[in-house]
Amino acid sequence: MPKKTTKKKTSTRKKSTKKKSTRKPDAEQGNDTDVLDLLAGLGADYHTDATDGEFDDMPDNDYPVAIDDIVVGESKSSQRLQISFETTVTGGDYQNRKIFLHLGLDSKENIGRTKGQLKTLEYEFPEDPKDLPADIQSLIGIDAIVTLKTSRSSGGQWRTFTGLSDDGGAVAESEPDPTSEDSSGEIVKGARVYSDEYGPDELGMVTAKAKDGTITIEYDDATVGKYPVEEVHLVEGEAAAEEEPAKVTIEFDDDAITAQQETAIETLAKAAEYDPDKYEKWCDLLADLGEEYGVDGTFANAKSLILAVKKAAK
Length: 314
Prior knowledge:
The chain is of the alpha+beta class. It has three domains: 26-164, CATH 2.40.50; 184-234, SH3 type barrels; 248-313, no CATH class. Helix content is 20%, strand content 24%. It has helices at 26-29, 33-40, 108-119, 132-135, 259-271, 282-292, 302-313, and strands at residues 61-74, 81-89, 98-104, 143-150, 157-164, 192-195, 204-209, 215-219, 224-227, 232-234, 248-250, 297-299. The strands form three sheets. Strands 3-2-1-4-5 form a five-stranded antiparallel beta sheet, with helices on one face. Strands 9-8-7-6-10 form a five-stranded antiparallel beta sheet, with no helix packed on it. The longest helix has 13 residues, at 259-271. The two termini are 24 Å apart.
């Protein structure tokens, strides 16, 4: 998790040419007679039926944005204390689309994650928390990068600040997701293969594939061998067997995760090169780690899933 930095760095943040927000505080908005007159003038249009909207979901990617507005306050739905950001995409196919981010201030863990995200924008919290609402307005107008990433366990899409944007609004080319590519030529668990050791006359089936690329073959005569991936070949004319992706279902939330278990999850994440700062919940991070290592099943508590991930990671 990000450590608190006391030394103040000289900012290299790039200010956007977009105008700063003219949003009025909530108390003033409720008494704005001009707005009330405009609302009254909507007439029958005000009672238009709800629609699903006209925008498609934005795909997972890195998006250049300008920060338009920042509000420190309580969530209207959960009443949690948070920092809400309104941003506008400045380039690519989704230019001018809005992305909203809500960074939590409701717990020690969420404050640490929020500081970690804002550190990528070269922003550090003021010493006095009462100064935060005014001080953080310095981020309005800067160009930043927001990363959208869908969680494999919950299906929700996380929105994260991951840095400053200095590329003039160009959208980064995202790498293809290996889970969506055609794997008909890939050697996977269940595939019919042969090895260089015995040649194409001795066939077997792949029973395991380690992270380092080592493949375990169980031959038709029940003997077993382990080989580097370059010494194993698919049987000609036979497609690789379809491998069902690992699926982890969790029946617990962060409330059931202890501080010691959080440390264990963080250690596993670092070993797998996962960034805990991109997750709002420990349980979602743990579920993704489980699927990364091929763990499959339903877990009622964090302890059992942590043990399963540790075993699969060996």
